[in-house]
Amino acid sequence: MSVPHSVALPCKNHLLSLLSEKEMEHLASKLTSVRTTFKQVLFTRNSPIEYVYFPCTSVFSILSFMQNGTAVEVGTVGNEGFAGIDVLIGAESATDTTICQVEGDSLRMRTSDFREAVATDTPLRRVAQRYLQAYVSQMSQSVACNRLHTIEERFARWVLMTHDRVTGDEFHLTQEFLADMLGVHRPSVSLVASAFQQAGLIKYTRGNLAILNRVGLEAASCECYKNVKGQFERLLGLARS
To answer: Model-level pTM?
Structure first.
């Protein structure tokens, strides 16, 4: 359950909202508000992690790159968690590349400060470990989803997950970026987006995607969306609406 804080942060991250006022008073001075822009690279595979990011209105994508330069999304992070999870398990460098997929605001903490804050059995370490479990659940569900479900179902799931993490019903996403997220060619994304638009579920124009029928999108999605949503609610007490 979220705890009301007298500590005023520039923006809200749900994971941090699980901490007590006393803990937030301790961490507030170590958090800096930053604007993360579309396609901004936060971490690069095998490179040192300088900062840990707690998204507020931004959404990040964790990408695995192949030798030919193609990329597939292996995870996403929004205002429910934090980016830089490798640091939590003691890593010095990033396992994969992380970029900003939806521009917005985030809170940033130096990696050294984060390591110090989770070095012992602190409240931040406990909630971060619960988030790690939910994140791993998301990744494993995505593997099964990419193998077993149609592009239409995966498209709906991905749009719903992004909608959960942004403010309002509109966000900017190019077809090229959606193709990377879903691991398909751009023409496939164009066909699916057009079909969903004709069905009145979304409006998609020049990279701007608007949700028109949330209930219809949930019906078009596979079971994976609800499964992942349930894990986050169970582990973090977050009602993803």
So the answer is: 0.86
